[in-house]
């Protein structure tokens, strides 16, 4: 998988501009992925490539079109130093894997990388970067195949149940 | 160990002591969907084998982003939502009332102690009514439509204490911009901002809405003001007979951080392109040429905002070199502004006044910028490409600064006019 490198505070308007939100199918959204902000990525991204970013990836609007556009382009994983709250959750819900890597500074655009989720490590240019484990309640949704599949199995919710962090 | 306001709301709605960091399946008192993120939420609801929504009376639907429909796909999405509302007997304000956050507040859909979710990031606005309100995505909303509940990680809170009296032409928007500049765009991620202090206590609901609205610009899950007499009067006028929960954080509540601000010497603030936390005193960017001014949005599209703008305008005209777009946030605010003679005043001064909607804020329906153009906007986001071309620039400011700048054609300190 090839790395597309981004900086801090990549907002959802940059990922998918507001004027394209009448679409909802991932493939149609993917046509406009990063339109105007990273057109090289929009036209060059290949299925299996990964996005690597700095802090606060996905800030801004609640639009779920952002993770869907990435999925439509074949991106399955976004690695960032931190994620904005709504995007992180939207990603998990739709099946895009958001991985937190405390320091992405050394990772380089266009270089190859491999991700070993079970052992929590991303490797590129022979260097291993630690990846934080996904929180347990998010892992349950991912294991089910996203929130839709998770919810299909539920007839009703048991209110106020939960878990510690 | 005491509890924060947010911990108290979750504890109350869950009937047990709930602490920050805990993940709970909490009941939702109100859910809001609009024309942009709603269609996806409804599709997800159906994919989840949803047949009947959890409680039509607790769901509010309206259209505000692409209003009136600006394309055939937008019209199709609204048609799809109308049919769903009819079939599920959900109240649909359609495109008649205005911007979701203003409309939910003024129609009494938000009250102290409630948990409210909306498929729009600025849902945190309802914290002004003492509710825990947060923006969610469409898949989460599909889940809420089916079950009337959602998983929440109860956030830690940052206590934001504000003291002092605003100088003339300085107000809530300048305060929240300065706080955003201080905390940063991701500085409150996964936390809640609990606003308190004498300045907040004396602030009308309009200013509280402006402050809570922009909590998300710091990554916060919610912004909230402890309910008081101002809240009570506002909510009871809109929901007669409503029982208002008595709610305040404990004195020994544990906060992730405590920040104090004094507005006494605060001057008008401007967020410069392309981040909301790139905030400077107006003097630092005064004289910057602008092509368009937008006064409106869920942040600053209320009657009081237009009064402020009109006071700055006085008997002058807006500059012929720029476009001035005025968009009231709701029908109610529009009519108040109209009846006070301000719409006429703005039109005569050279502004375009549009029907209540989000307007240029999201770069959807109209008012888009060409490459190289500069906009000054009272809305809440200045991300690259937000209002049209990715080569355009958006500055954010208060209604007073917007009006002053619209007169001169360049960014102007409203205290100098």
TrEMBL record, chain A:
InterPro entries: Aconitase/3IPM_dehydase_swvl, AconitaseA/IPMdHydase_ssu_swvl, IPMI_Swivel, LeuD, LeuD_type2/HacB/DmdB. GO terms for biological process: L-leucine biosynthetic process. Pathway: Amino-acid biosynthesis; L-leucine biosynthesis; L-leucine from 3-methyl-2-oxobutanoate: step 2/4. Residues 46-102 form the Aconitase A/isopropylmalate dehydratase small subunit swivel domain. Gene3D superfamilies: Aconitase, domain 4. SUPFAM superfamilies: LeuD/IlvD-like (SSF52016). Keywords: Amino-acid biosynthesis, Branched-chain amino acid biosynthesis, Leucine biosynthesis, Lyase. Its EC number is 4.2.1.33. It catalyses: (2R,3S)-3-isopropylmalate = (2S)-2-isopropylmalate. It holds the Pfam family Aconitase_C. Heterodimer of LeuC and LeuD. This is 3-isopropylmalate dehydratase small subunit. It comes from Methanofollis aquaemaris. The lineage of its organism: Archaea, Methanobacteriati, Methanobacteriota, Stenosarchaea group, Methanomicrobia.
TrEMBL record, chain B:
The lineage of its organism: Archaea, Methanobacteriati, Methanobacteriota, Stenosarchaea group, Methanomicrobia. NCBIfam families: hacA_fam (TIGR01343), IPMI_arch (TIGR02086), PRK00402.1 (NF001614). The gene is leuC. Binds 1 [4Fe-4S] cluster per subunit. It is an enzyme of class 4 (lyase). Pathway: Amino-acid biosynthesis; L-leucine biosynthesis; L-leucine from 3-methyl-2-oxobutanoate: step 2/4. Gene3D superfamilies: Aconitase, domain 3 (3.30.499.10). Its cofactor is [4Fe-4S] cluster. It catalyses: (2R,3S)-3-isopropylmalate = (2S)-2-isopropylmalate. One of its GO terms (molecular function) is 3-isopropylmalate dehydratase activity. This is 3-isopropylmalate dehydratase large subunit. Keywords: 4Fe-4S, Amino-acid biosynthesis, Branched-chain amino acid biosynthesis, Iron, Iron-sulfur, Leucine biosynthesis, Lyase, Metal-binding.
């Amino acid at each position: 998988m090839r790395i597309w490198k981004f900086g801090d505070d990549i907002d959802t308007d940059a990922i998918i501009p507001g004027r394209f939100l009448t679409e909802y199918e991932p493939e149609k959204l993917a046509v406009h992925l990063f339109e105007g902000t990273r057109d090289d990525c929009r036209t060059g991204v290949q299925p299996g490539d990964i996005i690597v970013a700095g802090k606060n990836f996905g800030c801004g609007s609640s639009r779920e079109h952002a993770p869907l556009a990435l999925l439509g382009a074949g991106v399955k994983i976004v690695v960032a130093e931190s994620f904005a709250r709504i995007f992180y959750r939207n990603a998990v819900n739709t099946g895009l894997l958001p991985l937190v890597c405390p320091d992405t500074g050394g990772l380089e655009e266009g270089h190859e990388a491999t991700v070993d989720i079970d052992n929590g490590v991303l490797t590129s240019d022979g260097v291993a970067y630690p990846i934080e484990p996904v929180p347990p309640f998010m892992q349950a949704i991912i294991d089910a195949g996203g929130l839709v599949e998770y919810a299909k199995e539920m007839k009703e919710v048991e209110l106020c149940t939960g878990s510690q962090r | 160990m005491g509890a924060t306001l947010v911990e108290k709301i979750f504890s109350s709605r869950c009937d047990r002591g709930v602490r920050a960091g805990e993940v709970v399946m909490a009941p939702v008192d109100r859910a809001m969907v609009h024309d942009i993120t709603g269609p996806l939420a409804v599709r997800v609801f159906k994919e989840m084998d949803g047949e009947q929504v959890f409680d039509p009376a607790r769901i509010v639907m309206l259209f505000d982003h692409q209003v009136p429909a600006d394309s055939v796909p937008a019209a199709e999405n609204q048609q799809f939502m109308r049919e769903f509302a009819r079939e599920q007997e959900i109240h649909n304000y359609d495109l008649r009332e205005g911007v979701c956050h203003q409309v939910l507040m003024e129609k009494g859909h938000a009250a102290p102690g409630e948990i409210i979710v909306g498929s729009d990031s600025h849902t945190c606005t309802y914290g002004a009514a003492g509710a825990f309100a947060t923006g969610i995505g469409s898949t989460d909303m599909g889940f809420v439509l089916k079950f009337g509940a959602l998983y929440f990680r109860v956030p830690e809170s940052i206590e934001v204490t504000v003291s002092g009296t605003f100088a003339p032409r300085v107000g809530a928007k300048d305060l929240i911009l300065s706080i955003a500049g201080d905390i940063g765009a991701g500085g409150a991620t996964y936390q809640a901002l609990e606003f308190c202090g004498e300045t907040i206590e004396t602030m009308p609901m309009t200013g509280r809405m402006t402050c809570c609205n922009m909590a998300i610009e710091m990554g916060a899950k919610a912004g909230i003001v402890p309910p008081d007499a101002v809240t009570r009067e506002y909510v009871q006028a809109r929901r007669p007979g409503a029982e208002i929960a008595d709610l305040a954080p404990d004195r020994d509540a544990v906060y992730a951080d405590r920040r104090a601000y004094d507005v006494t010497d605060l001057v008008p603030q401007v967020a410069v392109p392309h981040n909301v936390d790139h905030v400077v005193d107006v003097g630092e960017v005064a004289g910057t040429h602008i092509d368009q001014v937008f006064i409106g949005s869920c942040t600053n599209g209320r009657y009081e905002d237009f009064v402020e703008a009109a006071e700055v305008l006085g008997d002058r005209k807006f500059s012929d070199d720029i476009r001035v777009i005025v968009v009231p946030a709701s029908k109610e605010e529009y009519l108040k502004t109209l009846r006070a003679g301000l719409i006429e005043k703005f039109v005569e001064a050279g502004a375009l006044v549009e029907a209540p909607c989000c307007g240029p804020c999201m770069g959807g329906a109209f008012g888009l910028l060409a490459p190289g153009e500069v906009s000054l906007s009272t809305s809440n986001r200045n991300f690259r490409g937000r209002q049209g071309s990715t080569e355009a620039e958006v500055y954010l400011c208060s209604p007073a600064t917007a009006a002053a700048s619209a007169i001169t054609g360049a960014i102007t300190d409203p205290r100098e006019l």
